[in-house]
Specification:
single chain, alpha+beta
Length: 109
Amino acid sequence: MSAETDAQAAELANTSGITPTSLQKTLTEKLDAEHVTIEDISGGCGQAFEATIVSAQFAKKTSLARHRLVNSTLKTEIAAIHAWTSKCFTPEEWERERVQEGEGLPAGV
């Protein structure tokens, strides 16, 4: 079922009960994540999300194992939405990623 108007899209988003905030809270609590960002990439219907998750629980896990951990943590939520994409980092990997992007550099550097 797709929405034809913005009002219908907003109503559809409200029916699933899945929000970026609820996803962020679940991941933070269940994975002891130190950083979680969730972006609604659905265009307003609340049925597609993209996440960046930083957790020490990802240490020594392959990319596949990390995604399986996240997907099992959000099993109910993922079943209720259309699309889910996640990027999983350990705290050390996340720090390197931020430095490479220039975000982790001290002021004036």
